[in-house]
Hints:
This protein is mainly α. It is 77% helix and 0% strand. The protein starts with a helix and ends with a helix. The relative contact order is 0.12.
Amino acid sequence: RNMYSWNIMIVVYAQNGKLEHARSIFDQMPQRDVVSWNAMIAGYAQHGLAAESLNLCCQMQQECVEPDILTFVSILKACASLAALELGKHAHDCIIRSGSESYVFVCSALIDMYA
C-alpha cells in the first residue's frame, strides 16, 4: 500500500462515521502525512469527538507534522464545540504565525469559534 491508498481508506471511513476502522488503519500506517492526520482530526471533530480531535492534534505536533489550513479549521471546530476559548485563542495565534488567517474557511471557523 502507498500513502495515497492508506489516506483514502482513512478519509472514507472517517467521513462515514466509522472512526474505529479509520483509527485502526491510521495506527497501522508505517508513515503519516498531514493528509492522514487531517482525516482523523476532522473525522473526530465532525462526529462529536472534539476532545479526541484536539488530543490527536497535540500528537501530530509532537511528531513534528506541520498543520495546514484544514487542520486549523478542524481544531477551531473542536474548540467551538467544547467552548474551549483559551485553546481557540492559542490556535488563532498559530494561524496568524503560519500566515493562514486570510483563507475564507479559516476566517469562517474563527468567527464560529468566537461566537
